[in-house]
Design a protein that fits this description.
The protein has 4 helices and 5 strands; from the N terminus they run βββαβαβαα. The longest helix is centred in the C-terminal third of the chain and has 21 residues. It starts with a strand and ends in a 7-residue tail after the last helix. The strands form 2 sheets. Strands 3-4-5 form a 3-stranded antiparallel beta sheet, with helices on one face. It has a domain of 93 residues: Double Stranded RNA Binding Domain (2-Layer Sandwich), CATH 3.30.160.20. The mean pLDDT is 90. It is elongated, with a radius of gyration of 27 Å. By secondary structure, the protein is an alpha+beta fold.
Length: 135
């Protein structure tokens, strides 16, 4: 089954490599015998579904291949689903353009509130001090 990353990008199964190994950890004999750990690899460099711009962006983020390893669950099927979701999420995040910050001035109200808060804080700290004796 192909992984849909965005409406314009779907990674076909032919470009994915799955490897299953024993996950280890708690679980007794089941963990020692069952190959539930999933290693999902996608060769970005030789992908046929990416545009040039997408490929350059992903190569900058991940290098020539993207590898996701999951051994969260005892079920191989569930680990495979998690790995596919994580791979899609990482690719989606990397392809989302970063919005440039537009510098703005603080509003008059926010400046007034800031100064008022500073004044109140100053007064509170002044009242905490020991009284001064003017003898």
């Amino acid at each position: 089954m192909a992984i849909e990353v965005q409406h314009s990008l779907t990674i076909p199964d032919a470009e994915l490599t799955e490897r299953f190994t024993a996950s280890g950890g708690p679980g007794g004999q089941h963990a020692n015998k069952a190959a539930t750990r999933v290693e999902l690899t996608w060769d970005i460099e030789n992908s046929q579904v990416l545009t040039f711009k997408q490929q350059v962006t992903l190569l900058e983020h991940f290098g020539p291949e993207l590898r996701v390893v999951v051994d969260d669950e005892r079920s191989q099927l569930r680990n495979r689903e998690i790995a596919e979701a994580r791979l899609a999420g990482r690719v989606r995040t990397a392809l989302t353009p970063v919005k440039k910050r537009r510098a703005t001035k603080p509003s008059r109200g926010s400046q007034r509130r800031r100064v008022e808060k500073k004044r109140k804080n100053s007064e509170r700290k002044r009242l905490r001090q020991r009284p001064k004796y003017d003898d």
